[in-house]
Amino acid sequence: MRGITERVELMEPTETGTAGPAASYRTMTAFTPADEERRRGVRRMKLTATGLLLFVAVVYVLSKLAGNAGAGAWADYVSAAAEAGMVGALADWFAVTALFRHPLGLPIPHTAIIPTKKDQLGVSLGEFVGENFLSQDVVRQRLRAVGIGARLGVWLADPEHADRVTAELATALRGALTVLRDSDVQAVVGEAITRRAGAREIAPGLGKMLERVVADGGHKRAVDLVVSRAHDWLVLHGDNVMGAVQGGAPGWTPRFVDRKIGERVYKELLRFCAEMRDMPSHPARGALDRFLTDFASDLQSDTETRARVERLKGEVLGRGEVQDLIASAWTAVRSMIVAAAEDERSELRTRLRSALLSLGARMASEPKMQEKVDDWLEGAAVHVVTTYRAEITSLITDTVAGWDAEHTTRKIEAHIGRDLQFIRINGTVVGSLAGLLIFTLSRAVGG
Q1: Phi/psi of residue 333, nearest 5 degrees
Q2: Closest residue by Cα to residue 157 from 358, 349, 352, 348
Q3: CB atoms < 10 A from the CB of 196, how many?
Q4: What is the pLDDT of residue 54?
Q5: How far apart are CA 200 and CA 206, in angstroms?
Q6: How far is it, in rounded angstroms, from Cα 42 to Cα 414?
Q7: Can you say how many angstroms the Cα of residue 82 is from the centroid of all Cα atoms in its chain?
Q8: Is-contact 420 99, C-beta < 8 A?
Q9: What is the spatial distance between Cα 291 and Cα 293, in angstroms, rounded to a whole number?
Q10: Alpha carbon separation from 157 to 197, 220, 357 (Å, rounded)
């Protein structure tokens, strides 16, 4: 948490209100307590390496004085070793120092490599990552070695994990439906339905469907229902029917004549409905069959009929009642889904959990299923890598370019400087041994 807090605190906004380059390089180069401890370790190693250099320098001076005083041949051997040790120590000091700054402050070419070549190093690092880590073959090989399909299957097959995934998916679904505004969804759904219905002529399809219904006799049940209900209604509302007939009669006719006509009309209607109900071969049924057959044919082939259906379709879709129906349907569906997502024992969550367990069991036991999942994941990863490789590598180069050179140098030196000081120590020791060996061989050859 401390590291995260430091990063947040160091992200300073620019004048435009966004975090600028200063924030990016300060996040990299800010010194933490661990970095300060590393710097103290570097300083200790520098003192050790420098002390060793001073030691061999003192040994060199003392051996020279001893040789001039006639101490013997051993003084020459010690002097040669100490001299070579100083040369090795100074050479390695120069090499290590040249990485981070100009030795002795002198602008010697090809020194202060890190601060002066920081941006080039960032570009090279980005190219290296892109070529060696973001290549298609590397991504496929690494993902194939991991075996994500099998591992994911074993993980999903655990009921506890399936419960967890089910709960997370339900939460996500509930959150998505809660965030969505009803007006937006209704507008999208209504527009999609209207556009899809308007783009396709419905008359031929209706004609084919009606033709199949009539051929199969499916309409007869509807006719039976309508006729039966009409007969029952006439039985219950005879007075209303007769009253309506009498009310439509001319005013000059006697009332008993109107009543007789009303009764006659009522009885004929009642008889007609009863006969049509009870007689499957009633002429009216046959006439209705012929009408529906002709209408089905007109829907498919008659231009005028098809045009009238299309006009009627447009009028229906344009009515506010239809849009209100879509809105009410969406509201009901959303409420139902949200309630099911919240209820742990709902059919939705139960089926989702069962599906996840089944999927996990198949992935864990079926090699073909594992291979299919692996291929899908590899394809998705390769697509991301190949499509956004430049953006990924530019993240590295742009981030390095935004770092401050001086602070970056200090940060890197704090991390690797201690190990680099061992190079100076090794240079002193190896130089001394090499100088002693060379001097010894020279004496032997000269002798």
Answers
A1: -65, -45
A2: 358
A3: 9
A4: 94
A5: 12
A6: 7
A7: 64
A8: yes
A9: 5
A10: 43, 52, 5
Query: pLDDT, tens digit, for every residue of 345-364?
Result: 888 889 998 999 998 898 88
| pLDDT > 80? residue 300 | yes
Q: How far apart are CA 150 and CA 172, in angstroms?
A: 26
Q: Are 383 and 163 in contact (CB under 8 A)?
A: no
Q: Higher-confidence residue: 177 or 371?
A: 371
State yes or no: pLDDT of 426 exceeds 80: yes
- Dist CA 12 CA 1 (whole Å): 19
Per-residue tokens: 14 = 């620019």
Q: What is the pLDDT of residues 199-224, one digit of tens each?
A: 677 788 888 888 888 888 878 888 88
Token digits for 196? 């899809």
